[in-house]
Fold:
Amino acid sequence: MKKHTLTALAVAAASFASAAHAQSTVTLYGLIDAGVLYTSNQAGSSNVQQSSGALNGSRWGLRGSEDLGGGLKTIFVLESGFSISNGAAKQGSRMFGRQAFVGLSSDQGGTVTLGRQYDSVVDNLGPLALNGTQYGGTLASHPYDNDNLNNSFRVSNSLKYQSVNYGGLKFNALYGFSNAAGGFSNNRAYSFGATYSFGGLKAAASYLQTNNSGSTINSSGAVSDDSTFTASRQRTYGAGLNYAFGAANVGFVFTQTQLSNLTAINSSNSGSSTTTSLGGNSARFSNYEINGRYAFTPAVTFSAAYTYTDASLEGVSPKFHQFTLQGDYALSKRTDVYAEAAYQRVVDGQGKIHADIMGVSASDSNSQAVATVGIRHRF
Structure:
């Protein structure tokens, strides 16, 4: 009798452990992007280099969830960026610089998370721009990544809400705390936006504001050492449309970034951070992007984009013209090889503003061309 009872208890315990295990999952994932990159003008000289993350930043991460019952679950993401060229950590050498958050997700009420996260402009407009996807990546970024569609910075100390899908409509909002006693608005950030999908049509709009980003007064604020600009205020807003039909996809994205008391443009394009000091005046970037891609076969895709940026910076009104073209061949579901070229020309920069394609160091003239071939592997 005791033997049968112990056997039954063992089976029950094993079943319980198995059920508990099924309710909790942790996944290891990542992406590695490596290639060879040519730049026509990098501070006055051409350059051929082995590159890491020329299109999409190399990263590894852990994501997990625990089912709490009743449609509620705990979720988390810990994601680290690195250079495949030398193994160094990216995002200011943070352990989990790309993303680090934990929260609760409800099938009925949406998701609330806390930590280091993407803003609403990245979430909603990024997928509609070529640089926010695998079909253009970093080289297709708008000048200086002024609208952050390429995730140049994340928002630390942030509280974020993502709604459930209401018949194709989803919306989100984020607030990044300054974490400063007596300085609630000193280096804070907030954003909100929405995306609507219907059939092959997708439309989105978003807004982002940062205050004293990159400020040395509060280096532990929402946006600090990885900020694109050091300014008393940054406002970025935009909208976009994307339409998929058959094997084709076309899109248009408009964004505008307004900066007050801009004192520096911070860049880590070459792998080492550099800062261009400015006079503390206001600045503006208006970006107009037309993009498209076509899948000739399930394995072969071509994509292209043209971005016109009308800017006001350092007392001049430069116009940036940028063209991007990519061909991609999928060797499998997880591995692809690519070739991409980008060309940027600056008009009316009056010698103050030079071409500066994201992902490489700036040119010392008004034009710059980049070409790369590489391989991406996802796991």
Observations:
- Confidence is low (pLDDT under 50) at residues 1-21.
- The first strand starts at residue 24 and ends at 42.
